[in-house]
Amino acid sequence: MDWGMANRLSQLIQKDGHVLILPVDHGYFQGPTRELEVPRRTIEPLLAYADGLFITRGVLRSSVDPDNSKPVILRVSGGTSMVGSDLANEGITTSLEEAIRLNVAAIGISVFVGSDYEKQSLLNLSLLVNEGERYGIPVMAVTAVGRELEKRDARYLALASRIAAELGARVVKTYWCEEFETVATGGPVPVIMAGGPKVDTEREMFDFVYDGMQRGAIGVNLGRNVWQNPHPVPAIKALRAIIHNGATPEEAEALFNSEKNGG
Ligand code: 5RP
Fold it and tell me: Are strands 219-221 and 191-194 parallel, antiparallel or unpaired?
Protein backbone atom coordinates (compact mmCIF):
# COMPACT_ATOMS: atom_id res chain seq x y z
CA MET A 1 0.00 0.00 0.00
CA ASP A 2 1.32 3.43 -0.91
CA TRP A 3 2.38 5.80 1.89
CA GLY A 4 -0.44 8.27 1.35
CA MET A 5 -3.14 5.61 1.41
CA ALA A 6 -1.60 3.94 4.49
CA ASN A 7 -1.24 7.29 6.25
CA ARG A 8 -4.85 8.27 5.60
CA LEU A 9 -6.18 4.92 6.81
CA SER A 10 -4.05 5.16 9.95
CA GLN A 11 -5.53 8.57 10.74
CA LEU A 12 -8.89 6.81 11.02
CA ILE A 13 -8.11 3.31 12.24
CA GLN A 14 -6.33 3.67 15.55
CA LYS A 15 -3.26 1.75 16.76
CA ASP A 16 -5.48 -0.90 18.38
CA GLY A 17 -7.04 -1.58 14.97
CA HIS A 18 -10.37 -0.09 16.02
CA VAL A 19 -12.27 3.06 15.10
CA LEU A 20 -15.18 5.18 16.32
CA ILE A 21 -16.59 7.36 13.54
CA LEU A 22 -19.28 9.96 14.25
CA PRO A 23 -21.59 10.34 11.24
CA VAL A 24 -23.32 13.68 10.85
CA ASP A 25 -24.11 13.37 7.14
CA HIS A 26 -27.83 12.63 7.50
CA GLY A 27 -28.99 16.02 6.20
CA TYR A 28 -27.80 15.17 2.68
CA PHE A 29 -31.07 13.31 2.12
CA GLN A 30 -33.09 13.86 5.34
CA GLY A 31 -32.80 17.64 5.67
CA PRO A 32 -32.68 18.99 9.24
CA THR A 33 -32.63 15.70 11.14
CA ARG A 34 -33.65 15.95 14.80
CA GLU A 35 -30.73 17.09 16.98
CA LEU A 36 -28.72 17.88 13.85
CA GLU A 37 -30.61 21.05 13.00
CA VAL A 38 -27.57 23.14 13.96
CA PRO A 39 -24.71 20.78 13.18
CA ARG A 40 -22.02 22.74 15.03
CA ARG A 41 -23.99 22.49 18.28
CA THR A 42 -24.23 18.72 17.88
CA ILE A 43 -20.68 18.11 16.71
CA GLU A 44 -18.61 20.29 19.06
CA PRO A 45 -19.20 18.52 22.39
CA LEU A 46 -18.66 15.08 20.79
CA LEU A 47 -15.60 15.82 18.68
CA ALA A 48 -13.05 14.99 21.36
CA TYR A 49 -14.38 11.43 21.67
CA ALA A 50 -14.60 10.56 17.95
CA ASP A 51 -11.77 9.19 15.83
CA GLY A 52 -13.30 10.74 12.72
CA LEU A 53 -16.35 12.44 11.22
CA PHE A 54 -18.51 11.24 8.32
CA ILE A 55 -19.75 14.49 6.86
CA THR A 56 -20.65 16.39 3.68
CA ARG A 57 -18.60 19.30 2.43
CA GLY A 58 -21.40 21.75 3.23
CA VAL A 59 -21.54 20.89 6.90
CA LEU A 60 -17.77 20.48 7.15
CA ARG A 61 -17.09 23.99 5.87
CA SER A 62 -19.89 25.64 7.84
CA SER A 63 -19.76 23.77 11.11
CA VAL A 64 -16.28 22.40 11.85
CA ASP A 65 -13.28 24.62 12.50
CA PRO A 66 -10.30 23.63 10.37
CA ASP A 67 -7.91 24.04 13.31
CA ASN A 68 -10.03 21.84 15.60
CA SER A 69 -11.13 18.89 13.53
CA LYS A 70 -10.77 15.14 13.40
CA PRO A 71 -9.97 13.08 10.31
CA VAL A 72 -12.78 13.40 7.82
CA ILE A 73 -14.59 10.82 5.72
CA LEU A 74 -16.25 13.00 3.13
CA ARG A 75 -19.72 11.90 2.00
CA VAL A 76 -19.52 12.20 -1.80
CA SER A 77 -22.73 10.48 -2.93
CA GLY A 78 -26.23 11.95 -2.94
CA GLY A 79 -28.75 13.65 -5.18
CA THR A 80 -31.87 12.05 -3.66
CA SER A 81 -34.15 12.95 -0.75
CA MET A 82 -36.65 11.46 1.69
CA VAL A 83 -39.47 13.01 -0.33
CA GLY A 84 -38.21 11.84 -3.71
CA SER A 85 -39.23 8.64 -5.45
CA ASP A 86 -36.18 6.42 -4.79
CA LEU A 87 -33.33 6.94 -2.34
CA ALA A 88 -31.19 4.48 -4.30
CA ASN A 89 -30.94 6.77 -7.34
CA GLU A 90 -27.75 8.44 -6.07
CA GLY A 91 -24.94 9.97 -8.06
CA ILE A 92 -21.50 11.28 -7.16
CA THR A 93 -21.88 14.78 -5.74
CA THR A 94 -18.35 15.83 -4.90
CA SER A 95 -15.15 15.72 -6.94
CA LEU A 96 -11.84 14.21 -5.91
CA GLU A 97 -10.31 17.65 -6.37
CA GLU A 98 -12.66 18.94 -3.66
CA ALA A 99 -11.77 16.01 -1.40
CA ILE A 100 -8.08 16.81 -1.79
CA ARG A 101 -8.75 20.53 -1.17
CA LEU A 102 -10.52 19.59 2.07
CA ASN A 103 -7.60 17.36 3.07
CA VAL A 104 -9.85 14.41 3.85
CA ALA A 105 -8.75 11.02 5.18
CA ALA A 106 -11.28 9.09 3.07
CA ILE A 107 -14.37 9.45 0.92
CA GLY A 108 -17.66 7.62 1.41
CA ILE A 109 -20.39 6.54 -1.00
CA SER A 110 -23.57 4.48 -0.60
CA VAL A 111 -24.24 1.41 -2.71
CA PHE A 112 -27.74 -0.02 -3.08
CA VAL A 113 -27.34 -3.72 -3.91
CA GLY A 114 -30.59 -5.31 -5.06
CA SER A 115 -32.26 -1.99 -5.88
CA ASP A 116 -33.32 -0.66 -9.28
CA TYR A 117 -30.13 1.41 -9.15
CA GLU A 118 -27.76 -1.38 -8.14
CA LYS A 119 -25.59 -1.13 -11.26
CA GLN A 120 -25.45 2.68 -11.18
CA SER A 121 -24.38 2.80 -7.53
CA LEU A 122 -21.82 0.02 -7.93
CA LEU A 123 -20.31 1.68 -11.01
CA ASN A 124 -20.18 4.96 -9.06
CA LEU A 125 -18.24 3.13 -6.36
CA SER A 126 -15.86 1.69 -8.95
CA LEU A 127 -15.30 5.11 -10.47
CA LEU A 128 -14.48 6.59 -7.09
CA VAL A 129 -12.09 3.74 -6.31
CA ASN A 130 -10.31 4.32 -9.63
CA GLU A 131 -9.91 8.01 -8.78
CA GLY A 132 -9.25 7.53 -5.07
CA GLU A 133 -6.50 4.97 -5.64
CA ARG A 134 -4.78 7.39 -8.02
CA TYR A 135 -4.50 10.00 -5.25
CA GLY A 136 -4.10 7.68 -2.26
CA ILE A 137 -7.58 8.37 -0.87
CA PRO A 138 -9.40 5.35 0.59
CA VAL A 139 -13.04 4.79 -0.31
CA MET A 140 -15.56 3.66 2.32
CA ALA A 141 -18.60 1.93 0.82
CA VAL A 142 -21.87 2.18 2.74
CA THR A 143 -24.23 -0.75 2.13
CA ALA A 144 -27.43 1.29 2.12
CA VAL A 145 -30.93 -0.18 2.07
CA GLY A 146 -33.02 2.96 1.62
CA ARG A 147 -36.45 2.36 3.11
CA GLU A 148 -36.17 -1.43 2.85
CA LEU A 149 -34.98 -1.95 6.41
CA GLU A 150 -35.99 -5.64 6.35
CA LYS A 151 -33.00 -6.28 4.07
CA ARG A 152 -30.66 -6.05 7.07
CA ASP A 153 -29.90 -9.73 7.56
CA ALA A 154 -26.58 -11.55 7.41
CA ARG A 155 -27.16 -13.04 3.96
CA TYR A 156 -27.92 -9.72 2.28
CA LEU A 157 -25.34 -7.68 4.20
CA ALA A 158 -22.57 -10.22 3.54
CA LEU A 159 -23.43 -10.15 -0.17
CA ALA A 160 -23.49 -6.34 -0.39
CA SER A 161 -20.34 -5.92 1.72
CA ARG A 162 -18.41 -8.49 -0.26
CA ILE A 163 -19.35 -6.88 -3.57
CA ALA A 164 -18.22 -3.48 -2.27
CA ALA A 165 -14.88 -4.94 -1.18
CA GLU A 166 -14.42 -6.73 -4.51
CA LEU A 167 -14.92 -3.42 -6.31
CA GLY A 168 -12.11 -1.92 -4.28
CA ALA A 169 -13.60 -0.24 -1.20
CA ARG A 170 -10.88 -0.07 1.47
CA VAL A 171 -13.47 -0.11 4.28
CA VAL A 172 -17.12 -1.19 4.33
CA LYS A 173 -19.77 0.32 6.55
CA THR A 174 -22.76 -1.93 7.02
CA TYR A 175 -25.45 -2.72 9.56
CA TRP A 176 -25.08 -4.96 12.56
CA CYS A 177 -27.21 -8.12 12.32
CA GLU A 178 -27.54 -11.56 13.93
CA GLU A 179 -24.59 -13.81 12.97
CA PHE A 180 -22.56 -10.72 12.15
CA GLU A 181 -19.37 -12.79 11.72
CA THR A 182 -20.73 -13.85 8.31
CA VAL A 183 -20.61 -10.21 7.27
CA ALA A 184 -17.42 -9.17 9.07
CA THR A 185 -15.34 -12.05 7.81
CA GLY A 186 -17.02 -12.48 4.43
CA GLY A 187 -14.67 -10.12 2.64
CA PRO A 188 -11.08 -8.95 2.51
CA VAL A 189 -11.48 -5.49 4.07
CA PRO A 190 -12.39 -4.15 7.52
CA VAL A 191 -16.06 -3.71 8.38
CA ILE A 192 -17.57 -0.91 10.47
CA MET A 193 -21.08 -1.05 11.95
CA ALA A 194 -23.65 1.64 11.20
CA GLY A 195 -26.36 2.50 13.66
CA GLY A 196 -29.61 2.24 11.81
CA PRO A 197 -32.80 3.52 13.43
CA LYS A 198 -32.63 4.65 17.01
CA VAL A 199 -32.80 1.85 19.57
CA ASP A 200 -35.02 2.17 22.65
CA THR A 201 -32.36 1.92 25.34
CA GLU A 202 -28.65 2.60 25.64
CA ARG A 203 -28.20 -1.00 26.71
CA GLU A 204 -29.51 -2.25 23.35
CA MET A 205 -26.87 -0.14 21.63
CA PHE A 206 -24.06 -1.36 23.90
CA ASP A 207 -25.21 -4.97 23.39
CA PHE A 208 -25.18 -4.86 19.60
CA VAL A 209 -21.93 -2.91 19.38
CA TYR A 210 -20.20 -5.32 21.76
CA ASP A 211 -21.57 -8.32 19.87
CA GLY A 212 -20.42 -6.93 16.52
CA MET A 213 -16.93 -6.23 17.87
CA GLN A 214 -16.69 -9.78 19.23
CA ARG A 215 -17.69 -11.07 15.80
CA GLY A 216 -15.08 -9.14 13.84
CA ALA A 217 -16.15 -5.53 13.25
CA ILE A 218 -13.36 -2.99 13.69
CA GLY A 219 -15.62 -0.25 14.99
CA VAL A 220 -18.70 1.84 14.59
CA ASN A 221 -20.20 4.69 12.64
CA LEU A 222 -23.09 5.55 14.95
CA GLY A 223 -25.01 8.77 14.60
CA ARG A 224 -28.58 9.04 15.86
CA ASN A 225 -28.05 6.62 18.73
CA VAL A 226 -25.37 9.00 19.98
CA TRP A 227 -26.55 12.53 19.23
CA GLN A 228 -30.28 11.87 19.63
CA ASN A 229 -29.60 10.39 23.05
CA PRO A 230 -30.55 12.89 25.80
CA HIS A 231 -26.99 12.39 27.09
CA PRO A 232 -24.83 12.27 23.97
CA VAL A 233 -21.44 12.75 25.65
CA PRO A 234 -21.94 9.91 28.17
CA ALA A 235 -23.23 7.77 25.26
CA ILE A 236 -20.14 8.30 23.10
CA LYS A 237 -17.79 7.86 26.07
CA ALA A 238 -19.41 4.51 26.86
CA LEU A 239 -19.17 3.44 23.22
CA ARG A 240 -15.52 4.41 23.23
CA ALA A 241 -14.98 2.15 26.21
CA ILE A 242 -16.36 -0.82 24.21
CA ILE A 243 -14.47 0.03 21.01
CA HIS A 244 -11.09 0.95 22.47
CA ASN A 245 -10.97 -0.49 25.99
CA GLY A 246 -12.80 -3.77 25.52
CA ALA A 247 -15.57 -2.85 27.98
CA THR A 248 -18.52 -5.24 28.24
CA PRO A 249 -22.09 -3.94 27.76
CA GLU A 250 -22.51 -4.00 31.56
CA GLU A 251 -19.38 -1.90 32.05
CA ALA A 252 -20.41 0.49 29.28
CA GLU A 253 -23.84 0.91 30.85
CA ALA A 254 -22.28 1.57 34.26
CA LEU A 255 -19.97 4.16 32.71
CA PHE A 256 -22.89 5.78 30.87
CA ASN A 257 -24.89 6.05 34.10
CA SER A 258 -21.99 7.40 36.06
CA GLU A 259 -21.16 10.01 33.37
CA LYS A 260 -24.82 10.94 33.12
CA ASN A 261 -24.88 11.59 36.85
CA GLY A 262 -21.86 13.84 36.70
CA GLY A 263 -18.96 11.38 36.43
C1 5RP B 1 -26.65 8.04 6.30
C2 5RP B 1 -25.48 7.32 6.78
C3 5RP B 1 -25.18 7.41 8.20
O4 5RP B 1 -23.85 7.78 8.30
C5 5RP B 1 -25.43 6.07 8.85
O6 5RP B 1 -26.77 5.70 8.63
C7 5RP B 1 -25.09 6.05 10.32
O8 5RP B 1 -25.93 6.87 11.02
P9 5RP B 1 -27.01 6.30 12.04
O10 5RP B 1 -26.24 5.66 13.15
O11 5RP B 1 -27.77 7.50 12.49
O12 5RP B 1 -27.86 5.32 11.28
O13 5RP B 1 -24.77 6.71 6.04
O14 5RP B 1 -26.79 7.76 4.98
Answer: parallel
Q: Got the DSSP string for 38-49? A: SHHHHHTTTGGG
Report the 3 state secondary structure along 56-83: CHHHHHHHCCCCCCCCEEEECEECCCCC
Could you read off the pLDDT of 93-126 as tens digits, one per residue? Answer: 999 999 999 999 999 999 999 999 999 999 999 9
Q: What are phi and psi of 256, to 5 degrees?
A: -55, -50
Give which of 57, 132, 52 is closest to 94, Cα–Cα: 57
Say how many C-beta atoms besides its own lie within 10 A of residue 49's C-beta.
Answer: 18
pTM beyond cutoff 0.90: yes
Active site residues: 173
Q: Which atom of ligand 1 is nearest to the CA of 195?
A: 10
Atom of ligand 1 nearest to the CA of 221: 7
Q: Which residue segments constitute the domains of the chain, with CATH numbers given?
A: 3-200+211-220 (3.20.20.70)
Distance from first CA to last CA of the chain, Å, rounded? Answer: 43
Residue 263 and residue 243: Cα distance in Å, rounded? Answer: 20
Q: How far is the CA of 180 from the centre of ligand 1 (A)?
A: 18
Q: Are strands 91-92 and 219-221 parallel, antiparallel or unpaired?
A: unpaired
CB 69 within 8 A of CB 50: no
Give the DSSP H or E segment for 171.
Answer: strand 171-175
As a dihedral over the C-alpha atoms of residue 166, residue 214, residue 137, residue 97, rounded to 10 degrees, the angle is 100
The residue among 187, 171, 241 whose CA lies nearest residue 209 is 241
